[in-house]
Design goal:
Elements (H helix, E strand, L loop, with lengths): L4 H29 L10 H20 L6 H12 L1 E6 L5 E4 L16 E3 L15 E4 L2 E3 L25 H20 L4 E6 L2 E10 L5 E7 L8 H8 L10 H19 L10 H21 L4 E4 L5 E4 L10 H15 L7 E7 L11 H41 L14 H49 L7 H28 L8 E4 H18 L3 E5 L5 E4 L1 H17 L6 E9 L2 E8 L33 H11 L3 E7 L3 E9 L3
Parallel strand pairs: 13-15
Antiparallel strand pairs: 1-2, 1-11, 3-11, 4-5, 4-8, 6-7, 7-8, 9-10, 12-14, 15-16, 16-18, 17-18
Helix pairs in contact: 1-9, 2-3, 5-6, 7-8, 9-10, 10-11, 11-14, 12-13, 13-14
Subcellular location: Cell membrane
Enzyme class: transferase
Protein name: histidine kinase
Length: about 650
């Protein structure tokens, strides 16, 4: 047998209290046993580790639009470098801390080691080496001899691998394979390797003097800069301690040939910026132009070989360029990048440390504190739990009464807490069930009434004809056919409603002219309007194209027009209108008839509802026409509304979207 809710609440409160006491003890023990850490160790190895940490977290910020998930990267770097790493928001809120355990951590230094701001890194060199030499077993960066920097201020969009989608990476890999195949065909063996989303084409460059294989690495996310051939040739060193020999020149020529082959085999698009980079670049240039135009500073807009735009100082004005030019460029870059990179954060670094959860002398105090808090929590729960359970018991009783058929069961509700909202929801559900039950009973009664009248008429005429009271002539047959038609129309209406409720109402939308549909409806109902002494006209534009089901739309509009004619007195007018609005059209049926009382308007589209309650055939139909019309309009993803005043007529408005 399940325990009562009160007992479960009591156990839960005790568990929460115990957890709170343990957490408090952990925090207290941690804070008392942890000593404040010093500043960064001033040694070369420590500086190198800190530089690596800053670089890795900067890369993370550049490639993510937030810091969610950085905790895993922080702990990995802390394990590899042996450093305590903490990342906080500018206001000091901790984002990730490698020393954090069970929610507690040593106090952070008063001054951060650095600020990571991925959206504000203008003026830096490209973070990705454009080309490097790699010897087997050792790597020699070209940057040691030749510094490659971007011609414009650095931003993530300057790195072609930034913002690439999976599809774009696949395309880059295919292009890299084409380059490798091309190099193979030219006699320079090459292969493609992919690491961390970066595709690299590697050319085997023969042997060095010490016999190690020398390779030229061309990353797929780098650029082929002007003058690379000469730089590569210069970077091939002569034999140590000897003048430049013929062999040295041959090696330089061979390096130049390899470089030219690499340039010739580089397919278009291998280093093209990503779609996201282009989007950021467009936004950056737009912001820079707006800022410079507002400051009335002249600038030149150019486009680089990779297709990106850049705002530059006009030639000949470099010396007189105001500082605001660079401020505008920096501001535009930061604002354009902000949605795509992580927000600014502070980086704190320190020594890695551990702590003891509890000391032996503190165990007794911790146990006593836990016991006291648990007793207090149990007392509070006993006093307040009954009040919490009381409305739930009332809800249970009301639900049981509803199960037994008492749809009028309700629960009293006070307050605004969760239990009060549950009570309101229960009462709303009970009200809906009661209303649905009433409507069901009323619908059965209405269907029976609507079927009984024509059936009684048919039976009466047939019995009278059989007894010889009424001759079975053409007039009687016509009357019987009329009653049969009423039955058929009622059954068809009921079938349409059933299909609509089941979501099986078939629609065949196609491009139709609503003007033509409105004119066809007016033409079809004009004889009935003339017989009733009502003027029926159409006020429509020349063309109003929309995707609708022609037959269903004529049926819906015809129901509205038939109702308007029925309730408009002799001498009145009915106007069918079509007006374009927003992304669709308003189809209106306006009459100057008797109008509808305000209390009837909310129920006008209910089934079998008629404002005239006598249910006479001379003053009203079956009460299904407007309900069907509402379903048909909604099946076209439209809406229907009505406005009316007594003795002033009515306006039915159906909005239909242009495209279904």
């Amino acid at each position: 047998m399940r325990r009562s809710l009160l007992v479960r609440f009591l156990g839960l409160s005790l568990a929460v209290a115990l957890g709170a006491v343990v957490a408090t003890a952990v925090i207290a023990s941690y804070s008392t046993t942890e000593s404040l850490q010093g500043e960064l160790d001033a040694n070369a190895g420590q500086l190198q580790a800190d530089t690596r940490i800053y670089s890795s977290l900067s890369d993370y910020a550049v490639n993510h639009n937030g810091w969610a998930g950085v905790d895993k990267e922080v702990r990995r770097l802390a394990d590899e470098t042996g450093r305590r790493i903490a990342v906080t928001e500018p206001d000091g809120t901790v984002i990730a801390d490698s020393a954090r355990m069970l929610g507690a951590a040593p106090e952070l230094p008063s001054v951060p080691a650095a600020t990571i701001d991925a959206s504000n890194q203008a003026g830096l060199a490209s973070a990705v080496p454009l080309m490097s030499y790699k010897a087997v077993g050792r790597t020699v960066s070209v940057g040691s001899a030749v510094q490659f920097t971007s011609a414009r201020a650095w931003a993530p969009i300057g790195d072609p691998s930034w913002g690439l989608t999976d599809k774009e990476r696949e395309e880059r890999a295919k292009l890299a394979q084409q380059a490798a195949d091309c190099l193979d065909a030219r006699g320079f063996p090459a292969y493609v390797a992919t690491s961390d989303g970066t595709t690299t084409v590697t050319i085997q460059a023969g042997q060095t003097d010490d016999g190690t294989g020398l390779e030229i690495v061309q990353p797929a996310n780098g650029y082929l800069m002007a003058g690379v051939e000469a730089q590569l040739a210069d970077s091939v060193p002569p034999t140590a301690g000897k003048p430049i020999t013929k062999a040295d020149k041959e090696r330089a020529e061979e390096a130049t040939a390899r470089s030219k082959a690499a340039a010739a085999c580089t397919p278009k698009g291998l280093y093209a910026p990503s779609a996201k980079a282009k989007l950021v670049n467009d936004d950056e240039v737009r912001r820079a132009k707006e800022c410079l135009d507002a400051a009335r500073i002249k600038f030149t807009l150019t486009r680089t070989e990779d297709g990106l735009q850049q705002v530059t100082v006009p030639k000949g004005t470099e010396a007189t360029t105001p500082a605001q030019f660079f401020e505008c460029a920096q501001q535009a870059s930061s604002q354009a990048l902000a949605p795509y990179v992580a927000p600014p954060a502070q980086l704190f670094l320190g020594s890695k440390s551990t702590f003891n959860l509890f000391s032996a002398e503190g165990m007794l105090r911790t146990a006593a504190t836990a016991l006291g808090v648990m007793l207090i929590a149990a007392l509070v729960m006993l006093l307040t739990g009954r009040r919490l359970v009381r409305p739930i018991v009332a809800l249970t009783g009301a639900a049981q009464r509803m199960r037994n058929g008492d749809h009028a069961a309700r629960v009293p509700v006070t307050g605004k807490d969760e239990v009060a909202r549950l009570g309101h929801a229960f009462n709303a559900m009970a009200e809906s069930i009661q209303r649905a039950d009433f409507q069901r009973k009323a619908m059965v009664s209405d269907v029976a009434h609507e079927l009984r009248t024509p059936l009684a008429n048919i039976k009466g005429y047939l019995v009278a004809s059989e007894d010889g009271v009424v001759p079975l002539d053409a007039e009687l047959v016509t009357s019987l056919l009329e009653e049969t038609g009423l039955l058929e129309h009622l059954v068809a209406d009921l079938q349409d409603l059933a299909l609509a409720d089941a979501g099986m109402l078939r629609m065949h939308p196609a491009e139709r002219n609503l003007t033509e549909i409105a004119q066809q409806v007016v033409l079809a109902h004009r004889p009935a309007a003339e017989a009733a002494g009502v003027t029926l006209t159409a006020d429509v534009p020349a063309q109003a194209m929309a995707a609708v089901d022609n037959a269903r739309m004529r049926q819906a509009l015809g129901n509205l027009v038939a109702n308007a004619i029925r309730f408009t007195p002799t001498g009145g007018t009915v106007v069918v209108g079509v007006r374009p609005v927003d992304d669709g059209y308003n189809l209106t049926v306006t009459d100057n008839g008797a109008g509808i009382a305000e209390e009837h308007l909310p129920h006008l589209f209910d089934r079998f509802y008629r404002a005239e309650q006598s249910r006479s055939r001379t003053t009203g139909g079956s009460g299904l026409g407007l309900a069907i019309t509402k379903h048909l309009i909604e099946a076209h993803q439209g809406t229907i509304t009505v406005t009316s005043r007594l003795n002033s007529g009515s306006v039915f408005t159906a909005w239909i979207p242009r495209k279904h």
